[in-house]
């Protein structure tokens, strides 16, 4: 059987954002991220590194308004790319979880790539600006990712005070959980329905 290509390219252009995103689930190549938001670039690079994904993002948005449109739209594109990469997902592991600490922060993430979108985001943190990145839009990013990727995503903050640490622990934990859940194993569909 020929190996399935698990890569995707998404182009999204609106009056608010212009995004080109490439995702490869089986390439651990170094991330190439440029969104105009250095903190967000760092978070996406952490997601890519710890998820062992190839990720390229070139994005521009109306940052003179705020970071919301850009961050949410990158989440939309990443979710669509993930869904496209998993078009034939019959033999993936499907379920995974990860618990990541970063100094004061401890975050738990669980995913189910069963085809239904749902986000549980049980995270409290200070609303602040980190180099142009509004921490309040973090939930919007993960909601867009799970909605457009069509998967269940649960994110729980177990502890933490520093917003940078909390957010970075989330991106790392989601990357690791998605890496585990997207691995190909066995030759049967991981569902009692017989389909995903």
Reading the helices and strands in chain order gives EEEHEHEEEEEHEH
Give the overall average pLDDT.
Answer: 93
Number of helices: 4
Fraction of residues in H or I helices? 25-40%
Question: Can you tell me the residue ranges where pLDDT is under 50 for at least 5 consecutive residues?
Answer: none
Indicate the overall shape: globular
Main β sheet profile: 4 strands, mixed
Primary descriptors:
single chain, about 200 residues, alpha+beta, 4-stranded mixed sheet, 4 helices, about 30% helix, globular
Q: Your description of this structure?
A:
- The protein has 196 residues and is α+β, with helices and mostly antiparallel strands.
- Helices cover 32% and strands 30% of the residues.
- It is built from 4 helices and 10 strands.
- The strands form 3 sheets. It has a 4-stranded mixed β-sheet with strand order 1-2-4-3, covered by helices on one side. It has a 4-stranded mixed β-sheet with strand order 5-6-10-7, covered by helices on one side.
- A hairpin with a 2-residue loop joins strand 8 (129-130) and strand 9 (133-134).
- Helix 1 (38-51) runs parallel beside helix 4 and helix 2 (68-85) packs parallel to helix 3.
- The protein is globular, with a radius of gyration of 16 Å.
């Amino acid at each position: 059987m020929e190996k399935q290509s698990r890569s995707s390219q998404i182009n999204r252009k609106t009056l608010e954002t212009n995004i080109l995103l490439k995702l490869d689930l089986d390439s651990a190549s170094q991330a190439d991220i440029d969104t105009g938001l250095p903190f967000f670039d760092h978070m996406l690079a952490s997601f890519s590194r710890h998820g062992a994904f190839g990720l390229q993002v070139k994005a521009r948005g109306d940052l003179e308004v705020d970071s919301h449109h850009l961050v949410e739209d990158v989440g939309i594109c990443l979710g669509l790319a993930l869904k496209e990469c998993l078009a034939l997902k019959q033999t993936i592991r499907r379920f995974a979880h990860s618990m990541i600490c970063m100094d004061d922060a401890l975050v738990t993430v669980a995913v189910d790539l069963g085809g239904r979108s749902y986000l549980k985001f049980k995270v409290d943190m200070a609303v602040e600006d980190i180099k142009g990145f509004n921490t309040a839009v973090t939930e919007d990013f993960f909601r867009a990712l799970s909605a457009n990727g069509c998967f269940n995503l649960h994110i729980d903050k177990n502890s933490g005070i520093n917003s940078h640490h909390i957010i970075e622990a989330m991106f790392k934990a989601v990357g690791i959980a998605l890496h585990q859940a997207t691995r190909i194993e066995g030759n049967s569909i991981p569902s009692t329905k017989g389909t995903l």
